[in-house]
Amino acid sequence: MVPVPGRPVRPGSGDRPTYAVGLLGDRADGAFTAQERGARLAVDEHNRDGRREFDLALRTAADGGTAEGSARAAAAFAAAEGLAVVVCAGTNATVPTAVQACTRARITALVVRADSSLLDSANLTTALLLRPTRSAGPPAILRHLNRVVKPARTVVVHDLSDAAETTPYVRIVTVYGKLDGVTAVEEVAADEGFAAVAGRVAERPGTR
């Protein structure tokens, strides 16, 4: 992690400065508790490294599970001295407003679990998505397939159990032709297993 320029939160061990990592979420949410434990372990591991050039300190803030609370907490984090990054451990209901507040303050926000179409423009902000999502994931997958894998034939397996949510992403291939090479779609009904479609795909070696 590279800290932001500015004064550290306090002197660290020896001559090292200390920068703060903010963790934002709902304390009533078990996922937030898990993220906090992981963050404390990561900060502790960093601070034990004798080669480190700075120390880290973890700060936490509760958003109450609301967008308003998330915006307030993120703004307070951004105004604090020595803050390097805000880890947004909230949900779709809270994280988009936190990202907006961090963007306005030019503070990096790490999104660890939210998956909302409101994050589609995250690449135009100071936010980093730590995992592929339904909203930000498809373009990255398409780029990887087209530029790295370059398959001659690709099969999209469409699980119809959540067709209302997934159809727009399938249409990226079937309607808008964003995937190079030959493409095919295998639909799997909500009450059907994947064994049959897996067998059909396996019959065509080299299919992705």
From TrEMBL:
The lineage of its organism: Bacteria, Bacillati, Actinomycetota, Actinomycetes, Kitasatosporales. It comes from Streptomyces haneummycinicus. Gene3D superfamilies: 3.40.50.2300. This is ABC transporter substrate-binding protein.
